Amino acid sequence: MLNGVVVKAYNSYYYVQDKDKVISCKLRGRFKKGRFSLMVGDEVNYMIVGQDSGIIEEILPRRGLLKRPAVANVDQVVLTFAAANPDINTTLVDKLLVLAEDAQLDIIVCINKIDLANDDEIAPLAELYQRVGYSVMFTSAKSGMGIEKLRNALYGKITAFAGPSGAGKSSLLNTIEAGLQLVTGEVSAKIGRGKHTTRFAELLPLSGGGFVVDTPGFSATEFTDIDFINLTYCFPEMAALASSCKFSTCLHDREPQCAVKQAVLEGKIAQTRYASYKDVLDELRANKKGY
């Protein structure tokens, strides 16, 4: 029995990366009867049945699951934003952080195009997210700044890249791993082998071990699966104070004796972060009318 990771799924075939080769595999019939959903990122045991083809015999337990797009066993997400052109939208940063927290992923906030940065604007922003507890990295595909540090953080892990169009994700990934040959542009990255029409995500191997996956679907800020109370725990600095609120069901909005609102008044929680929290809370309310 051999072992590998599903890197692509297309037309009922599963492409399994095993060291330096990719094997085209079918799924054993018993899995189909059980309607088991095999996903990109799943670790599997398989047997060779022909030249470069095999049968998947066993699907190993998952460490986690990213819902949009569906990728199993993602370890971390690199949320990538441009220091300038386009300027950073803190509300979008916070909304993507909510999605990453909800998926229980390790998070790196990557500020790219740092060669274009206005230090007076970027430094306080980076300090804010570092204070919350996030790892913040500064990179430039153009100058090479921070590339080695980010590259080392990817090795040995499955990493999702997400962020708005124009943040330079494709250029960044091409600089980290030249063999990826992602096509750059204003729209989300496409694999450089003609038009990429499959609706499945694809894991791209790194020479130092591990995989990256570009996740345009992750950048769609939809919060339909998040519960009102759980939203608090997607903001670490608020989660740390929630137990001090008068009501255990406090949404830190209209309730009295709220420790979170008090912390905002005292400057211990950034106004921008609280505004983003309220923004998402309002979206949740709009999606669940009558609450």
Explain what this protein looks like in three dimensions.
With 291 residues, this protein is α/β, with parallel strands linked by helices. A hairpin with a 2-residue loop joins strand 1 and strand 2 (13-18). Strands 10-9-8-11-15-14 form a 6-stranded mixed β-sheet, with helices on both faces. Strands 1-2-3-5-4 form a 5-stranded mixed beta barrel. Residues 185-199 have low confidence and may be disordered. Helix 2 (90-102) packs across helix 9 (271-287). It contains 9 helices and 15 strands.
Provide a quick synopsis of the model.
The protein has 291 residues and is an alpha/beta fold.
Low-confidence segments, given as residue ranges, are: 185-199
DSSP summary: helix tally: 9
What shape does the CA trace take?
Answer: globular
Q: What is the spatial order of strands in the main beta sheet?
A: 10-9-8-11-15-14
- Overall residue-averaged pLDDT value: 86
Instruction: Give me the oligomer status.
Output: single chain
Distance between the amino and carboxyl termini: 53 Å
* Biggest pleated sheet: 6 strands, mixed
